[in-house]
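Hi! If you just cloned this repository, the fastest way to understand the data is to look at a raw example. We've pasted two of them here, unedited. The first protein comes first, obviously.
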Amino acid sequence: MPKKITRRVLLKRSFGAFLTIFGLSSGGYVYANQIEPSMLETNILEIKHPLIPKDFSGKRIVQFSDTHLGFQYNLSQFKKLINKINSLNPDLIFFTGDLMDEPNRYQQIHKIVPLLQQLKAPLGKYCIFGNHDHGGYGSDIYRNVMETSHFTLLLNESRQIKLKDGSSVFLVGVDDAMLGKPDINLALKHVPFSQFKILLSHAPDLADIATQ
């Protein structure tokens, strides 16, 4: 992550299924990672920033992405991923795109929803579109799967996460850059500049734009 990203944290895509575990507190950030067997890579990030509210410090966020179900990734592996995420006891869960490789051709959609519904996070579950979620006329399919699984889909919009002490942080989600219509300005329209923000984007190319 570029050092110049000082007021927003970008959660972006990688290739292959992965998890990112975020612990938050105030001040720079430290990065470490550990690679698990098979196709699951787990990256551990500690994020420190002066705008992080005291009541958000210590919260755990789990991000996962690019499962591409149907393309060298099956439901058995997906179930192990779900169990792994729950074992981490996240406060927030983010899915940042590409759930199925070809949504309109995937024959086991009815088995995905019960697995995603098993994910638990007291501060909520949020998601955005990836290019494969739009591809193959899959936009409505993906939306229905995620919303039925109790995820909030952020499409060029933001959500305020209110904390017990009265403070808050903002989640900002943008559409996919390849097959969607990302609009960062629209997504940030109702977000105060002084608030800590987490930007969910499937495309890393939007990182520089987000810092302008």
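Ok, and the second one:
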Amino acid sequence: MQGRFRLAPSHSDRLMPRYDFRSPRLYVDAPLGDGEAVALTPAQAHYLTTVLRLKAGEEVLIFNGRDGEWRAALEGHKRTIGLRARAKLRAQTEPADLHYLFAPLKAARLDYMVQKAVEMGVSRLVPVLTRHGQVTHVNVARMRANAIEAAEQCGILCVPDIAEPVALTRLVAEHDGSRCLIFCDEVAETANPASALQRARNNASLAVLIGPEGGFAEEERAALIKLPNVVRLALGPRILRADTAAVAALALVQAVIGDWS
């Protein structure tokens, strides 16, 4: 996530974030530049004109994950409503090279987990199918919609890639040893997980793996432990639900070796 609370140096500004949280903000799949016209989807047009009741000339913030963030004005009427970029507010930033690999959950909890992962700065989300996983079908389009919504609401400039589901056996077979895999394992030692993460400090590319609530099968755990460049991590003495574990693990990674540190 981008720095939401970077403060101005003067004393009077210290109580207010610089970022504009009040203006509506939309992800658009179009090139952005000075004076560029941007078409809206029917859902976006409905949201701006019917839900928010904005009129021609009023402004919103837009981003596309490539060209930074722009202030744009509504133009046209009803079915011809669109946007025109007026001023660039923020340059594009590069996402952290942080992948989140997870056993899929049922709809509402998966929505929550995707949103939190985006807020925590993940650049790629990969559903992983395991032996004890409870969900085998994943709605990738819904995941992407939730990722976009989280990015819109939190001032994030990059929308993470959403991968198709992959079997854990394939994930293991195709593991790239240059990317450190932080394997969250409930039977690993619980002593100071922050210290365990120090072994991953020199890795620019990271992946965090959270398993199903039924746990990893023994052969899955054994295969993961044998991989090169793996850090086995416990998340404390309590068993966490998978969506809670996602937030805990990503917060720990960002605080110890990520962009929080």
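That's it. A detail worth noticing about the second one: The first helix runs from residue 42 to 51.
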